[in-house]
C-alpha cells in the first residue's frame, strides 16, 4: 500500500459566494465523500481546510503577508489516503465534491524520508 495526498484547489470566491443552504449541502457532500473513503479503510489523515491568510518566508528569511492568490486558484485543503496505486488514488479523487464547483484535486504520492 502507498500513501497519497489529495491537494484541493479552488477559487475562494466561489465558496464565498455560496448561500448558507448551498454551503451546508456542499459540506454534507464532503463529509459523505470522506466518510466513504474512511469506510473503505483508505483514509490515512482527514487533513484540514486551510485559511486564506498566512505568511510566506522567502530566501534571505524575508517574510511577507500571504499567500497572495496570483491566479484564481488557491489551495483549500488536503487529505491523505492509502491505496495500492496512483491509478486507484486517482479514481477515488474523481468523486471529490470540489470538482462540481470548478475546483481540482492534485493527487501526489507521499515519499517517506
If you had to describe this structure to a student in words, what would you say it looks like?
- The chain is of the alpha+beta class and 113 residues long.
- The chain has a single domain, classed as Dimeric alpha+beta barrel (Alpha-Beta Plaits, 2-Layer Sandwich), CATH 3.30.70.
- Helix content is 29%, strand content 37%.
- It has helices spanning 12-16, 20-39, 86-93, and strands spanning 2-10, 43-49, 54-58, 62-66, 74-83, 104-109.
- The strands form two sheets. Strands 2-5-1-6 form a four-stranded antiparallel sheet, covered by helices on one side. A two-stranded antiparallel sheet has the order 3-4.
- The longest helix has 20 residues, at 20-39.
- The chain is flat and about 45 Å long.
- The mean pLDDT is 89.
How is the secondary structure organized here?
Blueprint: E1 2-10, H1 12-16, H2 20-39, E2 43-49, E3 54-58, E4 62-66, E5 74-83, H3 86-93, E6 104-109
Antiparallel strand pairs: 1-5, 1-6, 2-5, 3-4
- Main sheet record: 4 strands, antiparallel
Structural class designation: alpha+beta
Give the fraction of residues assigned to helices. 25-40%
In angstroms, what is the radius of gyration?
A: 16 Å
Q: Number of helical segments?
A: 3
CATH hierarchy: architecture: 2-Layer Sandwich
Shape, please? flat
Quick one: CATH class? Answer: Alpha Beta
Give the rounded overall mean pLDDT.
89
CATH topology: Alpha-Beta Plaits
Question: How large a portion of the residues is in β-strands, by DSSP E?
Answer: 35-45%
Q: What is the distance, rounded to the nearest whole angstrom, between the alpha carbons of the first and last residues?
A: 16 Å
- Spatial arrangement of strands, main beta sheet: 2-5-1-6
What is the string of helix and strand elements? EHHEEEEHE
Strand element count:
6
Amino acid at each position: 500500500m502507498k500513501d497519497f495526498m489529495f491537494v484541493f484547489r479552488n477559487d475562494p470566491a466561489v465558496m464565498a459566494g455560496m448561500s448558507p443552504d448551498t454551503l451546508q449541502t456542499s459540506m454534507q457532500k464532503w463529509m459523505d465523500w470522506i466518510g466513504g473513503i474512511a469506510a473503505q479503510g483508505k483514509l490515512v489523515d482527514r487533513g484540514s481546510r486551510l485559511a486564506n491568510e498566512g505568511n510566506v518566508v522567502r530566501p534571505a528569511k524575508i517574510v511577507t503577508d500571504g499567500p497572495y492568490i496570483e491566479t484564481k486558484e488557491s489551495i483549500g485543503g488536503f487529505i491523505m489516503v492509502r491505496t495500492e496505486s496512483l491509478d486507484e488514488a486517482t479514481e477515488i479523487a474523481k468523486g471529490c465534491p470540489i470538482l462540481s464547483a470548478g475546483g481540482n484535486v492534485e493527487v501526489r504520492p507521499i515519499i517517506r524520508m
